[in-house]
Amino acid sequence: MRNRALEGKTVLMTGAGRGMGRRMSVALAEAGARVAMIDIDEDVLREAAEEAEGAGGQGSVKPMVCDVTDADRARQTVDEIVASFGSLDVLVNDAVVGPERIAGFMVGHTNFWDLDDDLWNAMLRVNVFGPQLMAKTCAPVMMKNGWGRIINVTTSLNTMYRVGGGAYGPSKAALEAHTHIMAHDLDGTGVTANILIPGGPVNTRMIPADAPFSRSALIQPEVMEIPVVWLASEDSDGVNGMRFIAALWDPDLPRDDRIARAGAPVAWTQLESRAIYPSED
Ligand SMILES: NC(=O)c1ccc[n+]([C@@H]2O[C@H](COP(=O)([O-])OP(=O)(O)OC[C@H]3O[C@@H](n4cnc5c(N)ncnc54)[C@H](O)[C@@H]3O)[C@@H](O)[C@H]2O)c1
After folding, report:
1. Does some domain include residue 3?
2. Range of the structural domain that residue 28 is part of
3. At 2, is the pLDDT very low, low, confident or very high (cuts 50, 70, 90)?
């Protein structure tokens, strides 16, 4: 068993039924956290919650059907988590509408003028508004406790502007930029906002069977487990507005070296192209 660094912490994981959300939920439960597992797909959620509870112990996991874009349900979900577990300390925004919904997206290319409007809007709504809604619902609870974590899952830079993926890339670029704003607004509250990405295509349903890779050569979803547990722990106190590449996370390095190897400031600070504002009167 891994260390129980997260005893006493409560995590809300969105997109917890499958892929990396499921793997991260299991790892967080194994590290001692109570985990509220959120998904819209009840069947996969039940199965994933059984696995996480097996890793964490009885009563450590609460599966909850919730659409991350439904404000009433989000409020109700957060209230129920606090009532059952007594706190809410960590939010992981992992839920996604992915590019796999565009037929042949890894082998062909749909031009932007042929993209479906409903899918474009769904990607922006779930991938950008969803994290904003969940964060605005959770942050006040965390700030009241003087401690908390918002962990947003975005993607690699080249995926953000990968052709043929519809709004998936732009939606993740928007969440990347928004994380910078969250980190700024949270500064000094004890709550932090950071990004965790796997570091390349991962062996989940997002990479369809017709993709030109062998499944075993892809990054495996387990890559997120150790870094998400660290980001959710008190050992990451003071780390705010950073993005971490899970595939570069080396738990054997000293803390500062680990951070330097896998981390960088969120978004595109290296662009150094700043708007020229008039001086204020
Ligand atoms: N798979 C990759 O190659 C890859 C690479 C980089 C980043 N990512 C990011 O990692 C995260 C997880 O990706 P994955 O491949 O594990 O995804 P996945 O498709 O396997 O799982 C996503 C889960 O989100 C749930 N979901 C969708 N809409 C929802 C909603 N409105 N409310 C609640 N839950 C909802 C789905 O039911 C699903 O269980 C995503 O944020 C994705 O952008 C993935």
Report:
1. no
2. 10-271
3. low
Per-residue confidence at 104, pLDDT binned at 50, 70, 90? confident
- Please indicate, yes or no, if residue 74 is contained in any of the structural domains: yes
Torsion of CA 127, 225, 37, 236, to 10 degrees: -80
Give catalytic residues, as residue numbers. Answer: 168
**Per-residue pLDDT, 140:** 98
pTM above 0.85, yes or no: yes
Number of structural domains, the chain?
1
In a domain, 277, yes or no: no
Q: Residue 150: enclosing H or E segment and its boundaries?
A: strand 148-152
Ligand 1 pocket, residue 24 CB under 6 Å: no
Query: When comparing pLDDT for 128 and 108, which is higher?
Result: 128
Cα(164) to centroid of ligand 1, in Å?
A: 18
Read off the CATH number of the domain in which 120 is found: 3.40.50.720
Which of residues 80 and 104 earns the better pLDDT score? 80
- Cβ 19 under 6 angstroms from ligand 1: yes
CA of 20 to the centre of ligand 1 (A): 7
Please check whether residue 7 is in contact with residue 89, taking contact to mean a CB–CB distance below 8 angstroms: no
Q: Does residue 155 line the site of ligand 1, with CB under 6 A?
A: yes
Interstrand relation of 263-265 and 242-245 (parallel, antiparallel or unpaired) = antiparallel
Ligand 1: residue whose CA is nearest its atom 17: 19
Ligand 1 atom with the smallest distance to the CA of 100 is: 19
